[in-house]
Write a structure and sequence with these properties.
Blueprint (H helix, E strand, L loop, with lengths): L1 H6 L2 E7 L3 E7 L3 E5 L4 H10 L3 E6 L5 H4 L2 H7 L4 E5 L9 E3 L4 E2 L8 E5 L8 E10 L2 E9 L2 E2 L2 E2 L7 H12 L6 E4 L4 H11 L4 H15 L7 E2 H7 L8 H6 L7 H13 L2
Parallel strand pairs: 3-4, 4-5, 5-6, 10-13
Antiparallel strand pairs: 1-2, 2-3, 7-8, 8-9, 9-10, 11-12, 13-14
Helix pairs in contact: 2-4, 6-7
Length: about 270
């Protein structure tokens, strides 16, 4: 029975606010919500699909990622909440950090916690390896505001060195890993990336693909680690074309990363 339920796992985006996604993992019966910044769209989706919310995963403390937790707790009082150990939260939760593994239930694999300071100092990501069937394994990364489609989060608390190190940890995951970040920034990030690397064919194709998805009213996410390695300037600080566009002479990768982040702040 458990194996059958595992095969039915789905991950769907719930749009909230201007450009956030709450990711909902479910097996048609039970559900996990990642970074529920707004409760009402989540509750509406759960009720429409007749799902029982069992778990909430929090990546960091910003309000657009936790604002819906209190109402969700009122509606689903038995829900378990996991949140970063290095941050403070008013709601009852289980604090986690690397190298913790989070038990999510008998219908889904455990989630590995990865510390990814940069956007905030306590920011974490959740990595799940799901055995779809005996021949196929899927990898899912829920990375909050650390790695974006063709971008990365702003440095509100951490340093460029911390963020760069965090991104390199995520970039080392299997290239087939699906990247579930929480903002629809992809096309804007691609346009910025093209200003630094205009001859990148993978980036040009990604711009076309993202534009078409948005025209259709579809999310540009999830991405994959492979696609990010090919198109994301924050994972490509060793590329000479990017370094030349930044007018840096023989820079270190950290200097390239830092300058790229500074330019993106005002793009």
């Amino acid at each position: 029975m458990i194996d059958h339920m595992q095969h039915q796992l789905q991950i769907i985006p719930i749009p909230v606010f201007k450009d956030n996604y709450v990711w909902l993992i479910h097996n048609s019966h039970k559900a996990i919500a990642v970074d529920p910044g707004d409760a009402i769209p989540v509750i509406n989706t759960l009720q429409k699909l007749n799902l029982d919310l069992q778990t909430i995963l929090i990546t960091h403390h910003h309000q657009d990622h936790i604002g819906g937790v209190d109402i969700l707790l009122e509606t689903y009082p038995d829900v378990k909440i996991f949140a970063p150990k290095l941050e403070q939260y008013a709601f009852i939760h289980k604090p986690v950090s690397e190298p913790d593994n989070v038990y999510l239930g008998d219908w889904i694999s455990t989630a590995k916690v990865i510390d990814v300071p940069g956007h905030t100092l306590g920011h974490i990501a959740y990595y799940i390896e799901h055995q779809q069937n005996e021949h196929q394994q899927q990898q899912w990364l829920f990375c909050g505001d650390t790695l974006f489609g063709a971008g990365c989060g702003r440095l509100f608390e951490g340093t460029p060195a911390q963020m760069m190190a965090s991104l390199q940890i995520l970039a080392a995951l299997p290239v087939s890993t699906q990247v579930y970040c929480t903002h629809e920034y992809t096309l804007h990030n691609i346009n910025f990336a093209l200003s630094l690397e205009p001859t990148n064919k993978a980036l040009i194709k990604r711009q076309r693909d993202a534009t078409e998805l948005i025209k259709l009213g579809l999310p540009t996410l999830p991405s994959t680690i492979a696609l990010e390695l090919a198109t994301n300037p924050f994972l490509r600080s060793d590329v000479v074309e990017i370094q030349s566009a930044l007018l840096l002479e023989k820079p270190t990768e950290l200097q390239t990363f830092t300058k790229t982040r500074e330019l993106r702040n005002s793009y």
